[in-house]
């Protein structure tokens, strides 16, 4: 593949110690789970283990780091173990093996009290089916985390009201969950998680139960809040476009294992194996590749009065900007100029996308004609 | 989908049908049923051979002599009830405490006088359930008074209140524990199953042994009988709390206690109140049966009427019981769903409550000053005479026919069946029970069923057990045939179903005793009136389940079958009945269990057998006989329940 | 979850529970007699025959109307009624038939919780009865030998191939099976379940002149209504019914007596003195019983009617100092 760059993509994060470090994490469901781990059984595949021991391996030897302030997306199909994985991060599900470090501390050793402290202050979660309390008003749902901490009523109501405003639900404080639409309910869920002012937010497929239009709004909302609050986030989804849209980095999970971890560009640009390739093959590269990926330092004499774009603007979105004038688009993070993208750079990316489509079409027709299937695509 | 339980016809409703297919054949097509028929046939053959060539044993030789041991135990208890620490520091606490509580509440109600009680009761009903229920409660109180049953009704109310409170006090925490801990649930579930299989009548003897006689013992037995639904429904309620809400709140760092009080209990409240409702209903039925061991009140009034064969008086007390049951049901149900509770602004709630209590106090005071503490005799009106007149008229009209029917059933059905069961060698019956258990359930079912039947013999109650079994089988068959027919009719006609519903409601709240009285009038004394009462008693749930089962069929399957041109009969036999099969099997199970419960109570009108063992054992201080008979009833119950439930369970897993 | 279990498992908690339990039990042993009781309520056991109900009806009427007591009448069989006295759940049995064994158990020589209240004036005699028309059709059928010969006359659907002996309630004093066994009578006992159900069957049979053989007793109002004969077994002698499985004689005659809960007697309340003074004849009882069973009057109304007609009979029973 002839990607524009082969080295690690430029990062706009402050590098440093990971916020969350997951190391060789295992989760095996079943009565004899302990008889699998640490024996040669653990090297067998899922089906073989189930047959031999009756146990189900949900998470298998998973390791990754989540850096402070990034959105780390875990993507996989249903049954891939992603929901189990995220629950292991706060031990809502007790891992069978491995460790989870939060700011370098192993939460596996926490007693119940310490674990509750962690859940009350450091890590909060948003759930697919919202998990709201039907008997409480929206504001009492949002204030729940503060309530169990022991915060007084006035204080927690003030904070909860603030959060409700922040997620755009002002005026609905006294509504009960069943009086709210799905999107609004998830906003309550989001506000509830934010209310405790956690360092880390965990999202478990938060938008997959929502209508597509509402889902898009909610994704925007997350990006907006992230811009504002800069929390570290782990986000589970089965929707590739959602993963690409939100993730600073994306982990692809399959049968309990991580297949590939990387940025959207890396996944699209250099899939680790056929599984990932199948996943990303329908993705329009111009929708994924960002200016960050294409940009180059400005050449001498190039006009620097062109339009401005954030580093994560996708190629498709800079095309209209380039069409409007002749000056290259400036890629800017805050006040810093990171680089520029000119018309030729954008065109090259578009052209590659089309070439690939053409190659793929040829391979498909070859396959249809009974020829060897398209290994040649790589 | 199962591989071999004869289900193909449901998957292809439009397939060409095997010749005549009635509702019965639809059920028969299931293989276990065919095998069971085969078993019965084999049984008959072996029995025939045995009868022809061998000598039939008249006694089983199984008796372990438990009865005599129990008699000795009883003698010891009677001598030591106020001496042994086991009683002084154990059982007496419960019985004396409960008995005292009943007396206290009863005295409280007396102190309030009837106007005070009426005001307080109607106010409470209004506050919880709104005007309509309050009006109903007022009418109920009026009926107590008019029928001259005010004091009895208050005693029953005191008994119910005490028992239900204690049952909830024990049941709800157990239910919570069972709802939160799978292990604990697994531990107590067999106990609950057992308690629910046990016919009410079988509770009486152990209660008599441990707690003696009278209101205390009645309160204990009512409490114990009413605990299972409280535990079960609470556990279910806790379990059914949205797991997402539990997980979400756990993820926010709730302690287990916070989780319970802020999440699980509030979310489970409605279902738990449903459990309270069920608890009350069970207590209502037990408090009447417990009159046999000395419970006072309306139950005793019915018991007295029964011993005088006075249909009219029994109906009066029965009516009072039913009205009370419905009133308690409506009030607690309204507390559960909360939709009828009048909306009162929060700041007015306390004043409203105060006003209600004050009004009751004023009414009580006024009544005392006016000397009208007891319901005025002039306001009483007896319907007993009228009912008795009607009853006699009915008897004159159809008495001969019903008695002839009774004679025919006895001679042609009941006696031959009883002869076969009692004359068979015991091992043949035990093996048959085992085989039936295996056919309808698992090996476990087979072992339980076989052992349960064997236990009847080991207890020394073999003949009685077989006698009772023959009665149960005949009555159950009648119940299922009639119940299915009526249920199917109800499912096909909304008008009929609507007419039937209030009748079924009333029948289900009517205490079992009441059924015996007209049965005696129509069929004389003996086994037949008990059977007739059992059939009538067991019909409502069977009709309900059949009706619900058919109505609950997937509308799309029905629509598809109609679209393919099924006639109504074809629709019923090829689509609705097969689809409703698990409901139908449950109906059979429920029908049989209720028949058993009633047949043993039938001993009070001469049905003999195990129920008679209990009654006679109690009346003549033969605890051994009473208790072994009671245990044998449980054995039969266990066998019948396991086998029929095994069938239902097999059905469920087959379609899972 | 974890912290909860550690709480309950912790040693101090366990110790506290044990200490509490010990304190509780050490402080108060609970006897059944320590149950609360309303001093203004008299609790009368009601055994299952209408003659007894007549006793109870009249006592109830007098206690309520002459002494202002509340009366609770509790339907209960004979033997359990003694137990109820023993436990303090009932105050008095008005009409006791024998039961020397129970007096041994609960009386002064046993638990010492009940006392004999002396005769109530009625003379009781249980026996086997049949309508007179049967003796005309089958002469000698009213003897054990005649019964043996003609037992098939009494066959019914319920009794199968034996003759039916219709008994009343299972709780009644009985040696019927012992008598059947001793005389080798081909009879099978069928319990009607209650005296009322039994007498209904008897009356039905009598109207149609059908054969019927049944358990009954004097005093009973039915004797005044129907023309019955008593089966002539040899008269009762001491010890002839010692073995309940082999009884060679008729039932004994009883001087029916009252049995009190000991506490009720020692309190010596007005209610007690009324009941203690109460004494009447079989004919009195039959009048009230007939009003209830034959005429279908409610218990209260029957008692009121009798009381109105027999003021001179009951006036002396009312304690002088307590009369209203």
From TrEMBL, chain A:
<dbReference type="GO" id="GO:0031460">
    <property type="term" value="P:glycine betaine transport"/>
</dbReference>
<keyword id="KW-0067">ATP-binding</keyword>
<dbReference type="InterPro" id="IPR003439">
    <property type="entry name" value="ABC_transporter-like_ATP-bd"/>
</dbReference>
<feature type="compositionally biased region" description="Low complexity">
    <location>
        <begin position="360"/>
        <end position="370"/>
    </location>
</feature>
<dbReference type="GO" id="GO:0005524">
    <property type="term" value="F:ATP binding"/>
</dbReference>
<dbReference type="InterPro" id="IPR051921">
    <property type="entry name" value="ABC_osmolyte_uptake_ATP-bind"/>
</dbReference>
<dbReference type="Pfam" id="PF00005">
    <property type="entry name" value="ABC_tran"/>
</dbReference>
<keyword id="KW-0129">CBS domain</keyword>
<dbReference type="InterPro" id="IPR005892">
    <property type="entry name" value="Gly-betaine_transp_ATP-bd"/>
</dbReference>
<keyword id="KW-0547">Nucleotide-binding</keyword>
<dbReference type="InterPro" id="IPR003593">
    <property type="entry name" value="AAA+_ATPase"/>
</dbReference>
<comment type="similarity">
    <text>Belongs to the ABC transporter superfamily.</text>
</comment>
<feature type="region of interest" description="Disordered">
    <location>
        <begin position="354"/>
        <end position="378"/>
    </location>
</feature>
<protein>
    <submittedName>
        <fullName>Glycine betaine/proline transport system ATP-binding protein</fullName>
    </submittedName>
</protein>
<dbReference type="InterPro" id="IPR017871">
    <property type="entry name" value="ABC_transporter-like_CS"/>
</dbReference>
TrEMBL record, chain B:
<keyword id="KW-1003">Cell membrane</keyword>
<dbReference type="GO" id="GO:0005275">
    <property type="term" value="F:amine transmembrane transporter activity"/>
</dbReference>
<dbReference type="GO" id="GO:0031460">
    <property type="term" value="P:glycine betaine transport"/>
</dbReference>
<dbReference type="InterPro" id="IPR035906">
    <property type="entry name" value="MetI-like_sf"/>
</dbReference>
<feature type="transmembrane region" description="Helical">
    <location>
        <begin position="472"/>
        <end position="493"/>
    </location>
</feature>
<feature type="domain" description="ABC transmembrane type-1">
    <location>
        <begin position="153"/>
        <end position="332"/>
    </location>
</feature>
<feature type="transmembrane region" description="Helical">
    <location>
        <begin position="133"/>
        <end position="150"/>
    </location>
</feature>
<dbReference type="GO" id="GO:0015226">
    <property type="term" value="F:carnitine transmembrane transporter activity"/>
</dbReference>
<feature type="transmembrane region" description="Helical">
    <location>
        <begin position="280"/>
        <end position="303"/>
    </location>
</feature>
<keyword id="KW-1133">Transmembrane helix</keyword>
<keyword id="KW-0472">Membrane</keyword>
<dbReference type="Pfam" id="PF00528">
    <property type="entry name" value="BPD_transp_1"/>
</dbReference>
<feature type="domain" description="ABC transmembrane type-1">
    <location>
        <begin position="465"/>
        <end position="644"/>
    </location>
</feature>
<protein>
    <submittedName>
        <fullName>Glycine betaine/proline transport system permease protein</fullName>
    </submittedName>
</protein>
<dbReference type="GO" id="GO:0015871">
    <property type="term" value="P:choline transport"/>
</dbReference>
Automatic annotation (TrEMBL), chain C:
<dbReference type="Pfam" id="PF04069">
    <property type="entry name" value="OpuAC"/>
</dbReference>
<protein>
    <submittedName>
        <fullName>Glycine betaine/proline transport system substrate-binding protein</fullName>
    </submittedName>
</protein>
<dbReference type="GO" id="GO:0043190">
    <property type="term" value="C:ATP-binding cassette (ABC) transporter complex"/>
</dbReference>
<dbReference type="GO" id="GO:0022857">
    <property type="term" value="F:transmembrane transporter activity"/>
</dbReference>
<feature type="domain" description="ABC-type glycine betaine transport system substrate-binding">
    <location>
        <begin position="40"/>
        <end position="308"/>
    </location>
</feature>
<dbReference type="InterPro" id="IPR007210">
    <property type="entry name" value="ABC_Gly_betaine_transp_sub-bd"/>
</dbReference>
């Amino acid at each position: 593949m002839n990607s524009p760059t082969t080295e690690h993509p430029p990062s706009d994060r402050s590098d440093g110690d990971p916020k969350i470090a997951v190391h060789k994490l295992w989760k095996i469901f079943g009565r004899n789970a302990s008889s699998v781990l640490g024996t040669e059984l653990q090297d067998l595949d899922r089906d073989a283990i189930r047959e031999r021991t009756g146990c189900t391996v949900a998470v298998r030897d998973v390791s990754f780091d989540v850096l402070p302030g990034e959105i780390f997306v875990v993507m996989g199909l249903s049954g891939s173990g992603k929901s189990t994985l995220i629950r292991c991060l706060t031990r809502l599900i007790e891992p069978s093996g491995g460790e989870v470090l939060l700011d370098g501390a192993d939460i596996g050793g926490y007693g119940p009290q310490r674990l509750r402290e962690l859940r009350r202050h450091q890590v909060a979660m948003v759930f697919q089916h919202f998990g709201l309390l039907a008997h409480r008003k929206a504001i009492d749902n949002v204030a729940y985390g503060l309530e169990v901490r022991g915060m007084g009523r006035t204080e927690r109501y003030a904070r909860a009201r603030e959060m409700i405003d922040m997620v755009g639900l002002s005026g609905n404080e006294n509504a009960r969950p069943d009086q709210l639409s799905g999107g609004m309910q998830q906003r309550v869920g989001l506000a509830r998680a934010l209310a405790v002012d956690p360092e880390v937010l965990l999202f478990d497929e938060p938008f997959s139960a929502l209508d597509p239009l509402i889902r898009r709004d909610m994704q925007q909302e997350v990006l907006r809040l992230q811009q504002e609050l800069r929390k570290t986030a782990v986000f589970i989804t089965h929707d590739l476009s959602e993963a690409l849209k939100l993730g600073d980095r994306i982990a692809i999970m399959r049968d309990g294992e991580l297949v590939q971890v990387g940025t959207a560009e890396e996944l699209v640009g250099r899939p680790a194996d056929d599984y990932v390739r199948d996943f990303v093959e329908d993705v329009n590269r111009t929708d994924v590749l960002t200016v960050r990926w294409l940009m180059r330092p400005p050449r001498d004499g190039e006009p620097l009065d062109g339009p401005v774009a954030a580093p994560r603007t996708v190629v498709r979105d800079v095309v209209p900007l380039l069409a409007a004038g002749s000056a290259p688009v400036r890629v800017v993070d805050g006040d810093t100029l990171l680089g520029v993208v000119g018309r030729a750079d954008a065109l090259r990316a578009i052209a590659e996308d089309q070439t690939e489509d053409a190659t793929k079409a040829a391979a498909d027709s070859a396959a249809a004609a009974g020829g060897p299937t398209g290994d040649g695509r790589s | 989908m199962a591989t071999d339980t004869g289900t193909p016809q449901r998957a292809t409703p439009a397939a060409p049908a095997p010749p005549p297919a009635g509702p019965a054949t639809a059920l028969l097509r299931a293989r276990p049923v065919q095998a069971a028929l085969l078993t019965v046939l084999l049984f008959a053959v072996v029995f025939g051979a045995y009868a022809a060539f061998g000598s039939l044993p008249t006694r089983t030789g199984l008796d372990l002599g438990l009865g005599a041991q129990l008699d000795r135990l009883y003698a010891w208890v009677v001598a030591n009830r106020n001496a042994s620490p086991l009683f002084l520091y154990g059982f007496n606490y419960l019985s004396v405490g409960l008995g005292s509580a009943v007396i206290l509440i009863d005295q409280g109600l007396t102190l309030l006088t009837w106007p005070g009680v009426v005001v307080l009761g109607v106010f409470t009903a209004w506050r919880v359930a709104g005007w309509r229920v309050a009006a109903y409660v007022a009418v109920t109180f009026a009926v107590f008074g008019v029928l001259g049953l005010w004091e009895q009704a208050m005693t029953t109310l005191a008994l119910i209140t005490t028992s239900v409170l204690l049952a909830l006090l024990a049941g709800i925490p157990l239910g919570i524990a069972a709802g939160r801990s799978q292990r604990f649930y697994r531990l107590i579930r067999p106990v609950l199953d057992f308690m629910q299989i046990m016919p009410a009548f079988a509770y009486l003897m152990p209660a008599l042994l441990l707690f003696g006689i009278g209101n205390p013992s009645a309160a204990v037995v009512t409490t114990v009988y009413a605990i299972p639904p409280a535990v079960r429904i609470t556990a279910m309620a806790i379990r059914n709390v949205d797991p997402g809400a539990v997980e979400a709140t756990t993820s926010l760092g709730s302690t287990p206690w916070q989780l319970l009080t802020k999440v699980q209990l509030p979310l489970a409240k409605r279902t738990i109140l449903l459990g309270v409702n069920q608890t009350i209903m069970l207590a209502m039925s037990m408090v009447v049966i417990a009159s046999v061991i000395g419970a006072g009140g309306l139950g005793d009034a019915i018991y007295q009427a029964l011993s005088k064969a006075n249909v009219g008086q029994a109906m009066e007390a029965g009516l009072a019981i039913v009205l009370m049951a419905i009133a308690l049901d409506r009030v607690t149900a309204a507390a559960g769903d909360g939709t009828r509770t009048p909306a009162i602004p929060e700041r007015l709630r306390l004043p409203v409550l105060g006003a209600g209590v004050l009004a009751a106090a004023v009414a009580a005071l006024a009544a005392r000053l006016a000397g009208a503490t007891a319901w005025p005799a002039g306001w009483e009106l007896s319907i007993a005479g009228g009912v008795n007149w009607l009853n006699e008229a009915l008897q004159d009209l159809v008495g001969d026919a019903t008695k002839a029917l009774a004679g025919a059933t006895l001679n042609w059905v009941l006696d031959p069946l009883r002869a076969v069961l009692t004359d068979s060698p015991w091992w043949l019956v035990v093996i048959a029970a085992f085989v039936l258990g295996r056919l309808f359930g698992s090996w476990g079912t087979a072992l339980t069923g076989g052992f349960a039947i064997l236990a009847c013999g080991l207890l020394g109650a073999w003949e009685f057990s077989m006698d009772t079994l023959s009665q149960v089988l005949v009555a159950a068959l009648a119940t299922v045939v009639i119940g299915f027919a009526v249920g199917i009719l109800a499912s096909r006609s909304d008008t009929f179903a609507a007419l039937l519903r209030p009748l079924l409601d009333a029948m289900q709240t009517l205490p079992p005793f009441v059924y015996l009285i007209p049965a005696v009038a129509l069929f004389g004394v003996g086994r037949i009136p008990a059977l007739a009462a059992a059939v009538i008693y067991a019909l409502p749930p069977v009709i309900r389940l059949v009706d619900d089962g058919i109505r609950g069929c997937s509308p799309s399957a029905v629509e598809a079958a109609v679209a393919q041109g099924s006639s109504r009969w074809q629709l019923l036999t090829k689509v609705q009945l097969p689809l409703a099969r698990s409901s139908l099997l449950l109906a059979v199970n429920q029908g049989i269990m209720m028949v058993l419960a009633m047949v043993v109570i039938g001993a009070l009108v001469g049905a003999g057998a195990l129920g008679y063992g209990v009654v006679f054992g109690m009346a003549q201080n033969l605890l051994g006989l009473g208790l072994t008979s009671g245990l044998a009833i449980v054995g039969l119950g266990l066998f019948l329940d396991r086998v029929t439930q095994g069938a239902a369970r097999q059905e469920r897993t087959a379609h899972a | 979850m974890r912290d909860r279990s550690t709480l309950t498992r912790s040693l101090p908690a366990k110790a506290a529970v044990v200490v509490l339990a010990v304190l509780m039990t050490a402080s108060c042993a609970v006897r059944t007699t320590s149950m609360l009781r309303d001093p203004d309520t008299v609790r009368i056991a009601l055994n299952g025959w209408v003659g007894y109900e007549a006793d109870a009806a009249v006592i109830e009427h007098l206690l309520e109307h002459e002494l202002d007591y509340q009366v609770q009448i509790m339907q209960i069989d004979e033997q359990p009624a003694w137990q109820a006295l023993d436990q303090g759940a009932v105050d008095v049995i008005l009409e006791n038939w024998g039961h020397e064994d129970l007096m041994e158990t609960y009386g002064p020589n046993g638990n010492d919780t009940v006392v004999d209240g002396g005769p109530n004036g009625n003379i009781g005699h249980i026996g086997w009865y049949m309508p007179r028309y049967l003796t005309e059709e089958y002469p000698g059928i009213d003897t054990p030998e005649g019964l043996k010969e003609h037992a098939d006359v009494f066959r019914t659907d319920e009794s199968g191939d034996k003759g039916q002996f219709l008994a009343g309630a299972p709780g009644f004093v009985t040696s019927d099976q012992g008598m059947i066994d001793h005389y080798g009578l081909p009879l099978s006992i069928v319990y009607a379940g209650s005296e009322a159900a039994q007498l209904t069957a008897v009356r039905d049979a009598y109207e149609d002149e059908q054969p019927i053989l049944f358990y009954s007793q004097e005093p009973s109002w039915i004797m005044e209504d129907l023309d019955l004969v008593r089966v002539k077994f040899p008269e009762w002698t001491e010890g002839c019914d010692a073995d309940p499985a082999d009884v060679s004689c008729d039932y004994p005659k009883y001087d029916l007596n009252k049995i009190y809960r000991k506490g009720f007697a020692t309190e010596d309340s007005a209610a007690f003195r009324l009941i203690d003074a109460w004494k009447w004849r079989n004919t009195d009882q039959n009048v009230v019983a007939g009003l209830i069973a034959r005429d279908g009057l409610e218990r209260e109304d029957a008692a009121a009617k009798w009381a109105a007609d027999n003021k001179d009979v009951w006036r002396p029973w009312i304690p002088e100092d307590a009369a209203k």
